[in-house]
Amino acid sequence: MMKERTNKVKEGWGSRAGFIMAAAGFSIGLGNIWRFSYVAGNNGGGAFLLIYVVLVVLIGLPLFLAEAGLGRKSQASAITGLRKLTRKGSPWVSIGWLGNITSILITSYYLMIMGWIMAYLFKIGSGSLNGVTSDQAAVVYDSLVSNPLAVIGFTLIPTLIIGLVVSRGVKNGIEKFVKTLMPILLIMMVVLAVFSLAQPGSMEGVLWYLKPDFSKVTAGTLLEALGQVFFSVGIGFAAAFTYGSYLKPDKSDLVKDGAWVIGLDTFIAFISGLVIFPALFAFNMAPDSGPGLLFMSFPALFNQMPMGQLFGFVFFALIMIAALTTGVGLIEAIAHNTSELLGIKRKVSSWVILGFIFLLSIPSILSQGPWSSVQLFGMDIFGLIDYVSGNILLTLGGLLLSLYVVFKWRFKNFLHDINIGTDNLRFPHFGKPVVNIVIPAVIFLILISSAMI
Q1: Is a pLDDT exceeding 50 seen at residue 4?
Q2: CB 288 within 8 A of CB 141
Q3: How does 133-170 read in b/e, with b if 16+ C-beta sit within 10 Å?
Q4: How many CB atoms lie within 10 A of CB 451?
Q5: Which of 207, 258, 329, 365 is the most exposed place for a label (fewest CB within 10 A)?
């Protein structure tokens, strides 16, 4: 009965561009904007970029096609879809459960970070950060994150935006949202890169970022590149599975669309470095990563730049867009699964899930302030959730997905199903060793390395 009800209300993308923009928007997140470029610069610059592109084609694209392809094949969310493809109670269904649990945990602190970004949008737009030094910016950042009431208030804004988008459905909500925001994001990235490159002394930052230095390439570099591929593409969240389920099985070119998604994701990651590092080096500021760069170094940088307040506002707006499109994908995957499992309406499941995750974000918010002394396994609550979900559960889900392709789907069937609807770009027969051996081995290596950290 539940199955019949689910199929009756099944939605789909209104256009091919809608799927590409939505899937790319999910993949393009905060890590693309600042982490990728910093990792590249510290691991051989152009050499790292070359390694990354090779790995994203060999590993990222097949994994994305596998997850989205299962969604298209089953025409259902990850948990329900894997039950249809195997059976209820099958161990393979754990792929869907892991994806949803991981998405819930990651979204719980992702909302908090979006709250920080929203706060900085207001601060920069109002001019309250004008004239701050790096030391003063650090005080502003510490003051914000240690104030749970302020963070909760700012976090509520992106939470409501995501809820309004997801609750409106695929065509009228998600597709319209990403079709509006993704072109804006791409244009903003290019404009900011041109502006950054125009600053005197910016070429030093370009060389630091792009100059090939193979002497810095080590086994650790390969592992960093593999990890970046895995997390940047967004495998294991159940989002690609969900977005794939809205494709028409016989009328969608998944291989070509997947190539577009991976290409856009990689382009944004690459060009973000051309926004960040030319500006940093032009004004003699050391490159950094994480909150240190985003919330402390950059506000001081904007004060040194011509039209710095405008640059800063546009930059944080760009980051907010990337975070929102990722947040929409995360919530959509969880809400779709919940709707199918419980047989409830999309609007109800969307707001219930979002409300639950918003409440779940509060311990992470408190862990940066009043609960900062609470330590579990040597980490605060935010750090522990981040480690368990990102390093363990996400990678484990990806490993199970790759093993499903090898042992349950089988390469011959995988090849046939993925290439349905393709024209001139097809997944190749010679990809079998990569799918059956290389990808599972690589993900297992990432999982073991993460567990040992």
Answers
A1: no
A2: no
A3: ebeebbebbeebbebbebbbebbebbbebbbebbbbbb
A4: 11
A5: 207
d(CA 307, CA 436): 52
Number of domains in the chain: 1
CB 31 within 8 A of CB 232: yes
pLDDT digits (tens, 9 = 90+) for 129-141: 888 887 888 899 9
Q: Which amino acid is at 66?
A: A
Integer Cα distance of 227 and 37 in angstroms: 14
Task: Report the CATH number that the domain containing residue 290 is assigned in CATH.
Answer: 1.20.1740
- Number of other CB atoms surrounding residue 419 within 10 Å: 18
| Encoded amino acid at 311, one letter | F
Mean pLDDT over 106-113 rounds to 94
Residues in a beta bridge with 379 = 376
List beta partners, residue 376.
Answer: 379
Q: What is the residue range of 386's domain?
A: 2-452
Q: Which two tokens stand for residue 176?
A: 């319209």
User: Would you state the structure tokens that stand for residue 257, as one six-digit string?
Assistant: 């669309």
Q: CA–CA separation, 104 vs 100, rounded Å?
A: 6
* pLDDT tens digits, one per residue of 334-377: 999 999 999 899 899 999 999 999 999 999 999 999 999 998 88
Neighbours of 344 (CB within 10 A): 15
pLDDT per residue over 387-430, tens digit each?
A: 888 878 888 898 999 999 999 999 999 999 999 988 888 999 99
Amino acid type, 296? M
Interatomic CA distance for residues 219 and 217, integer angstroms: 7
Residue pLDDT, tens place only, 144-170: 999 999 999 999 999 999 999 999 989
